[in-house]
Design goal:
mainly beta, three-stranded antiparallel sheet, 146 residues, Immunoglobulin-like, elongated, 2 helices
Length: 146
């Protein structure tokens, strides 16, 4: 349904610092978190960039390569299929370095323009999407950092 607005709330998840040294180590890698949500509701055919925020608890800076952030979308309503109605239409297109002990630094605070941010979109399916009116989306993030 064109012109209808949809509510979006995003949830954050924990990511992990991963490099070759930790791959063979028995110790747990230091954690970091990724969060982010959309500023405006989605409608069919529209997408919005996500200004990701990173918290780095490590004593070392972390680098996340372009394309290394995975965003999984789920909905609050079984009758509104996330895979049929929503998609990540562009991933993170630029490498990001998160400073050590960063308490929560966003892409925008790092000086990265929205053209480098991931985009979450509502797909225009040309079928009735009324089941998605008012749905809440959960965005779950995973990333590989070095």
């Amino acid at each position: 349904m064109i012109g209808a607005l949809f509510v979006l709330i995003a949830a954050s998840t924990t990511g992990w610092y991963v490099d070759a040294a930790f791959a063979s180590s028995s110790s747990s890698p230091p954690s970091f978190t990724i969060s982010g949500d959309l500023d405006v509701p989605l409608s069919p055919g529209a997408g919005q960039p996500v200004d990701l925020t990173f918290t780095n608890r490590s004593s070392s800076a972390l680098t996340i390569a372009p394309g290394a952030v995975t965003i999984t979308i789920s909905t609050s309503r079984p009758t509104c299929s996330a895979s049929a109605n929503f998609a990540v239409t562009r991933g993170l297109t630029i490498g990001v370095t998160i400073p050590a002990h960063a308490p929560g630094v966003s892409l925008s605070a790092l000086g990265i323009a929205p053209r480098g941010w991931p985009i979450v979109s509502m797909i225009q399916t040309d079928t009735n999407q009324d089941a998605c009116k008012g749905v809440t989306l959960a965005l779950r993030y995973a990333a590989r950092a070095t």
